[in-house]
Task: inverse folding
């Protein structure tokens, strides 16, 4: 087991990622809530129009312009074209350029043509928010980024380096260098990988960790999401054991009921055991702390569920 | 229709769906099942190699088709299971070599922009998957080709992506943008509207001009190849809409996944692409039992032992099961004439041929 303290706020920016379907968006939202509770001024950003945060915070849509979505939490959807317009406005001070740009599909063209330009624009926006100051102090104490899934993450985070190498001059190079400095600084940026206690997601997590480490990117604790509750053993003959327990308690349960109960419980127990095994494998292979989040049997991930997870994460937020 | 009927009847099966729903596993299980039914089947996967390779018991899955040793006593059939991984870049290289002279191809290969196009441009992977499908079909060695599709954010990307690549390569807009660099003649410049000129200036300013020189050079070398690209794309499309082709939508029993599956199914119908069915992976089917209508109430009465734990666990999963059923009815119920196969969530991870075989069995048993 690792002795490292599991701090999700060790760096100012937490890049939250994971294999598709493991719940990274939920975890990102829960982390933002936990940090906000701890008194931090938090920016919660999603990359491109995924509209994933809006329902959690009871909104229809998250705007490109920053807006307060919960106490101490500013929400933002980063869009590549908006970011480009922003960027041009900032560096060239030409607001009129935006309309012409949009009309000519120039952004689409530019982002398709220049390698990594789109990712640079997305992550560049995060960097801008990260470095933004008001009267000398940082505007945001903590930034949570709902990043692309692990399949795309290395390329996403590698974009600044790729641009620095490919583009020999110009503003974009300066911008890329600035972003590169941020993503490789352990005080400013760490990647929080969300995974599930199963063989395939764990393996993908290990591969991602290896790739990111080689890129000089710091990894924070791993969030193990969807951990099933463990059950007491039902022994070699689960049906007999349950039948005995039922008669002890004076409950009249049919054979059918006993059979189904035993079936569900043994499958569950077996799966829960496999989950522990997967978590152990990860702990053996990777020296990063794991934070466990329980599987929630609820219908959908709404605000109460996310609050529940935030409560657990608050132990890893300082 | 049952899965077996489909596997025996079709020549091409395309597995689509958003990421994280077990698409690759389904594709492999289907190909294995077909082999068990006596067909010579191949599965081509796109996901990072290791996943499928490991689940097929192969150390490494390469760009070349490999025969998977389907051991086990039951394989009296003459079926074969082949597996391969899509190597996007080499498929693209091969296409370029076929389409142009060696000198031109060489120039294209050394262009940094080509490297970007062939490895990272959105849509390339999907296009190459389709190109590979065509190649496998042309080779004629396999009775059934099962193709896995790239893990897209949305299943729909897969349909649009090849078109996006051809549009990009042909790109009128792009040529317009590149005019000054392509020495297309002075007159051309006059037709560029103001917006484009402003945009062009802005983009040049931020990307630097070296990149544009590479891009211009790339498109010059590519001149004349767009047509071929387009034709190939059209040809593959014909193959996709052929009678012996079936698209399967792989999904999971969650609201977003099912909604997307329905949307995708509708899109396929709009595009006149045959939808073979929908596979719902990791479904929970916990039956209702007389006397267990309120497990929580019984659990509260029986103390805190194993029985209470089993009752609560049953209650939780029964609720999940009912919810999934409702979701399935609500989202997929409206799609007519489309079989929906439910594969129950397995207690163990799927990582070998035996578990792939088990999934095949479960699929075959599922009612369409």
Result:
């Amino acid at each position: 087991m690792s002795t490292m303290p599991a701090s999700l706020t060790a760096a100012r920016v937490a890049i939250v990622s994971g294999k598709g379907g493991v719940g990274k968006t939920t975890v990102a939202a829960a982390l933002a809530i936990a940090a906000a509770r701890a008194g931090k001024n938090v920016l919660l950003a999603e990359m491109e129009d995924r509209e994933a945060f809006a329902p959690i915070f009871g909104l229809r849509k998250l705007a490109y312009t920053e807006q307060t979505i919960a106490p101490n939490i500013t929400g933002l959807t980063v869009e590549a074209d908006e970011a480009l317009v922003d960027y041009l406005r900032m560096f060239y001070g030409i607001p009129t350029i935006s309309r012409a740009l949009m009309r000519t599909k120039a952004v689409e063209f530019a982002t398709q043509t220049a390698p990594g330009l789109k990712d640079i624009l997305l992550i560049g926006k995060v960097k801008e928010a990260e470095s933004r100051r008001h009267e000398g102090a940082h505007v945001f104490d903590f930034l949570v980024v709902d990043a692309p899934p692990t399949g795309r993450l290395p390329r996403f985070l590698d974009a600044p380096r790729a641009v620095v190498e490919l583009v020999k001059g110009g503003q974009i190079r300066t911008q890329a260098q600035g972003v590169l400095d941020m993503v490789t600084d352990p005080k400013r940026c760490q990647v929080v990988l969300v995974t599930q206690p199963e063989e395939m997601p764990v393996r993908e997590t290990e591969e991602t960790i290896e790739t990111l480490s080689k890129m000089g990117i710091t990894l924070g604790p791993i969030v193990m999401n969807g951990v099933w509750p463990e059950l007491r053993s039902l022994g070699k003959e689960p049906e007999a054991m349950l039948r005995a327990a039922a008669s002890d308690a004076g409950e009249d349960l049919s054979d059918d009921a006993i059979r189904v109960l035993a079936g569900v419980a043994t499958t569950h127990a077996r799966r829960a055991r496999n989950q522990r095994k997967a978590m152990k494998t990860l702990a053996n292979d990777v020296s990063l702390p794991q934070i466990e989040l329980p599987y929630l049997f609820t219908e959908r991930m709404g605000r109460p569920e996310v609050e529940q997870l935030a409560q657990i994460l608050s132990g890893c937020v300082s | 229709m049952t899965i077996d009927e489909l596997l025996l009847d079709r020549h091409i099966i395309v597995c689509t769906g958003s990421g994280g729903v077990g698409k690759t596993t389904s594709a492999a299980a289907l190909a294995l099942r077909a082999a068990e039914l006596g067909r010579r089947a191949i599965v081509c996967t796109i996901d990072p190699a290791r996943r499928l390779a490991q689940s097929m018991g192969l150390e490494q899955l390469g760009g070349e088709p490999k025969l998977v040793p389907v051991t086990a006593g039951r394989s009296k059939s003459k079926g074969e299971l082949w597996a391969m991984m899509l190597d996007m870049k080499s498929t693209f290289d091969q296409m370029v070599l076929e389409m142009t002279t060696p000198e031109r191809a060489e120039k294209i290969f050394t262009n940094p922009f080509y490297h970007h196009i062939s490895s990272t441009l959105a849509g390339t992977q999907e296009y190459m998957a389709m190109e590979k499908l065509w190649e496998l079909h042309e080779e004629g060695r396999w009775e059934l080709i099962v193709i896995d599709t790239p893990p897209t954010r949305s299943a729909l990307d897969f349909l649009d992506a090849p078109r996006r690549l051809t549009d990009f390569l042909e790109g009128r807009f792009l040529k317009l943008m590149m005019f000054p660099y392509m020495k297309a003649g002075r007159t051309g410049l006059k037709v560029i509207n103001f917006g484009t000129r402003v945009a062009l200036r802005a983009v040049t300013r931020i990307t630097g001009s070296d990149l544009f020189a590479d891009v211009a050079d790339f498109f010059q070398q590519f001149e004349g190849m767009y047509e071929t690209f387009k034709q190939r794309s059209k040809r593959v499309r014909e193959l996709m809409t052929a009678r012996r082709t079936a698209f399967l939508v792989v999904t999971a029993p969650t609201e977003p996944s099912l909604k997307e599956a329905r949307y995708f199914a509708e899109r396929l119908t709009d595009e006149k692409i045959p939808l073979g069915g929908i596979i719902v992976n990791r479904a929970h089917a916990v039956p209702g039992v007389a006397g267990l209508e309120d497990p929580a109430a019984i659990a509260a009465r029986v103390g805190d032992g194993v029985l209470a734990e089993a009752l609560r666990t049953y209650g939780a999963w029964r609720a999940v099961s009912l919810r999934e059923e409702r979701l399935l009815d609500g989202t997929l119920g409206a799609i007519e004439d489309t079989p929906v196969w439910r594969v129950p969530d397995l207690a163990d991870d799927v990582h070998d041929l035996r578990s792939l075989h088990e999934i095949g069995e479960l699929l075959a048993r599922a009612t369409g």
